[in-house]
Design a protein that fits this description.
21% strand, 458 residues, 7-stranded mixed β-sheet, single chain, alpha/beta, 5-stranded parallel β-sheet, binds zinc ion, 17 strands, 37% helix
Length: 458
Amino acid sequence: MWYAVVRNTQQTVTRALMAIAVIALAAVPVVAQEASTSPPPKTLIKNVSIFNGTSQSLVTGKDVVLVGNKIDKLIPAGSGGTQYDQVIDGKGGYLTPGLIDVHWHMGMGVNEREYFGDQAYVAIHSAKEAEQQLMRGVTTVRDAAGNVFGLKKAIDTGVTPGPRIYPSGALISQYSGHGDVRSGKPTVMAKEWGGPVGMGVSDGNMMLANGYDQVLAAARQQLFLGATQIKIAVTGGVSSFTDPLYVMEFTEEEIQAAVKAASDYGTYVMAHGHDFAGVIRALNNGVKSIEHGSVLNEEAVKLMAEKGAVFVESFEVLAQLKPLYTDPVRKAKLDNATEGSANVAKWAKKYGVLMGFGTDLLFSAEGRKNELKDLGLRKEFFSSPEIMIQATGNGGKIVALTGKRNPYGKLGVIEEGAMADVLIYSKSPLEDVSIVEDYDTNLKLIIKDGKVYKNTLQ
Ligand SMILES: [Zn+2]
């Protein structure tokens, strides 16, 4: 009897749900038709010289046509006619692709203590910073570790403005590695031996894994959450206490586990690595993007070129950490990294390694406002056009390593079919890339995904 009652109730519920579903289905085509009848807006941008993201010289005599969130085509100047929803006069300025920071941590603008604290505060702070970053002309970020999936969703759905994000999710690290920041007394045990879950782990910012199976599971967990690439640590780090820079982190098998999980999803692994031994091991086991590399030797840099791996070296961060890392452990590591990084940049240039613009500024909202200073610091090693290519076209190639996993279209270039991320500067960044730093004055137009966020041309 009770069974019949339950079954009848279930049937009633099922029928009611079906009725709702029918109503919902009936409503869908009407909405879809309305959306499809209004064509995407057409924008003409005229009176500009174009830096296309890959060439060291400017393109002149062309206008740019945007349709919706894509670059539709480049046409001979003045040949566009009048059929546009919007015409932007560039006033003789310099049109470039949006900037791409390929090593940034959207959640790490708060100070270190707050980062491991209330995550709602961290999220609100990050959203505020994301808007500031977009207003600097950074339209895409590859997030190099941190739980930023919610922020990415909020930006993609228009809840809050910011750059589009390629998230790595949690940094995957071994015990005593770069991501092992256990709290409490120094004798604290790992969780397998009764200790607490480590700082940052339950917030989704770090994940500790040891052995092939655990690394495979950790990487798959990040893919489940929406990671577009996987981030692991393969050497000691400057900010961590238990691993000097020379330490090799993750065995061959553990690195292969991360690479296997990523490549099965059509994407790749990026690795935090300072010293040559760990980086050479990572390259030989399938890692495609090397981050930092401050104390690499020439052999490791050459191997990057041979393997077709990409390299992201950051400059401004070394200067910014100097006053913060005054304890003897981190001070020594930072001095070591600062000393080595100049040679590495020279070798990267010598062997033609593809370099991105990644700044890695963290734990200071004020410091992060100097993100674009990193461009000027590169002038010691690279020409202004080379640096602009790093910050646009090369960035586009780096985020495209996500392959089948790529949630967006072509980035970092001004060409037919690319995403409509467009900036206009009043001065030429190819003559001196440092003009990009003063974005308040020199950056006149910001378009991301076809939408205008700043226009002071008129
Ligand atoms: Zn980083």
